[in-house]
Every structure is written in C-alpha cells, then in structure tokens.
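> example.struct
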C-alpha cells in the first residue's frame, strides 16, 4: 500500500480562482435571491446550471465553468442570505472542484480538489502556475 501524497496548499489556488470569479459572482448576484433560493430548494438543477452558464458566458469560454449540481441557500431572520454553489472549472489539463459562496456584498471560493496531468509533480508552485495559465487561456478577452 502506498503512502498518500502530501496535499497541495489550496490557499493559493483559492486566491487565484477567487480573482477569476469576481465577474461571474457579480453577475450571479444580479439574480433575484428569492427566485434563486426557490430554484435551490426545489432542486431545479437544470435551471441553476442555465443561470451559471449565462453568468459565465461573458467571461469564460463555453464549458470551462460548470455548475456542480449541488447548491445550498441560507436564509435566516438575523443573518444576511448566502448561496453556495458547487462548481467545476475545467480547461486544458486542469480541473478544479470548488464551492462558490455568494452573499450580499461578498463572494468566496473554497477549493475542494484540483487535478493536473498525471505527469505533473505534486508541487504547489507548479499547480499554481498551471491553474493561472488555464484560467488565462479559458478567459474571454
């Protein structure tokens, strides 16, 4: 049995991905929160995917950014509403699974896992460079 490889530091990945997601999160924030909450509560994944696609089509090449078919909406009496969408970024040989959390004034990214080509070393600096390159190539000018 082989020992598990050391995990990559996701903090830098999250920063790179968060910078790339600013425009998409801003666009998603334009959606009516009540309607988005209703879509999430009634498991209307196809409609949520359409919303994500339309919010990202101005910024990323088609298919680069996808809804991961899971979402959560927190609505409380004493808290600001937040929406968390499971997302997938895929371009070239880089795939990242992450949560995109959107609130009234802020958005955040939490990287769940990142996959690179099998030949790449398990090195955070290499992974950061590859992620940055993939995002740059996937962005629309």
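> example.seq
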């Amino acid at each position: 049995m082989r020992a598990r490889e050391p995990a990559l530091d996701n903090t830098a990945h999250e920063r790179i991905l968060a910078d790339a997601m600013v425009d998409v999160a801003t666009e998603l924030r334009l959606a009516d929160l009540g309607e988005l909450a209703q879509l999430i509560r009634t498991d209307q994944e196809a409609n949520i995917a359409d919303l994500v696609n339309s919010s990202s089509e101005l910024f990323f090449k088609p298919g680069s950014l996808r809804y991961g078919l899971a979402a959560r909406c927190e609505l409380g009496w004493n808290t600001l509403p937040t929406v968390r969408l499971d997302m997938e970024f895929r371009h070239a040989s880089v795939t990242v699974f992450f949560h995109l959390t959107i609130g009234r004034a802020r958005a955040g990214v939490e990287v769940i896992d990142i996959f690179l080509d099998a030949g790449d070393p398990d090195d955070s600096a290499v992974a950061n460079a590859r992620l940055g390159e993939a995002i740059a190539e996937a962005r629309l000018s």
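> remarks
Residues 10-138 form one domain.
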